[in-house]
Amino acid sequence: MEKKQKTFFRTFIGSTAAILLAVSLTACGKETTSTTTSELELVSETVSSSVEEVKYENINPLTGENNLADAAKGQRPIAVMINNHPSARPQWGLCSADIVIEGLVEGGATRMMWLFSDVSQIPKIGSVRSMRHDFVELADGLDAIFVHWGGSPQAYTSVSNNHVDDIDGLSDSTNFFRDQTRNVAIEHTGYTTGQNILNAINQKGFQTNINSSYSSPFQFNIPDVKRKLADGICKKVNIYFSAQGYNHTFTYDESDGLYYNRINNTPMTQDGGKQMSVSNVIGLYTNVQPISNDEAGRIDMDLTGGEGFYISNGTYETITWKKGNIASNPLKLYDKKGNELVLNAGKSWIGLIPSSYSSNTSISDT
Question: What are phi and psi of 207, to 5 degrees?
Fold first, then answer.
């Protein structure tokens, strides 16, 4: 596989403008002077120096932030299936994920797939839960190494057919563990850590360099520059997945520019009490259908594409998205003009919301 090429952004407009302004003031002041060749060369050298000073060489491809460790550059992301049953809350390590993707499984419940760019930064996370085929395909479209504890028959078929590199707690007794201090059913107790995931990767001999065609899954604005979105103000959004109570409210905090997550009107927190917050809230509407002759009542999410919304920086806009019917196709987001969506840098929550509940989404400007 091809190695990821070094990518960086350059911001020089401000520096250039300041230098040119200084030159113009010299030329247009009360005393007329001429600009010599040596002075122009100095301007050019200064601009070049300023450009070099604002390189961004450690961009996290999942957040757009300039904070990725050198050792993690060009590495495949890690995708972990996480339980969202009430007995599994508060989850271990909820606030550590770069991206949280949430979608329906059977019984009106949701499950999450947490994405990480740097395996060394993954703390104790869980509870790790069984996979479903839609999440396998989303992970495959990111060239991710997929971590789970068991799975549905459809998910195992997808792993096999699409040659997905996976780490399964059901068959790996050395890198997954049980924490039974909460007095809950055993399926809510499984966890792992970044070090254990790395151990499993080494044991299985997985390729860790990302395929270059997957190295930039999302487009981001320049770090520390937040853009306003086109359709209006969003201080709060309510999002519904089902009648079974897996519903979220994200509320904007102007003091830090983040949206704080509540599930069923209760703060969604990780173990220890820290509330989950993200820079970007992304909702993707999808048609959901039961799988024929599946006794467990499992469902299939249509990942072909559709409409949605993007919320960030106290504002929102409508978007479209596409993945298609091929598992290895990446998830892509687009603005209303059909251009690839530019996200503000920071962590994201992405919800695959049943189209039947689209009318329940409410965006408030207060």
Answer: -65, 130
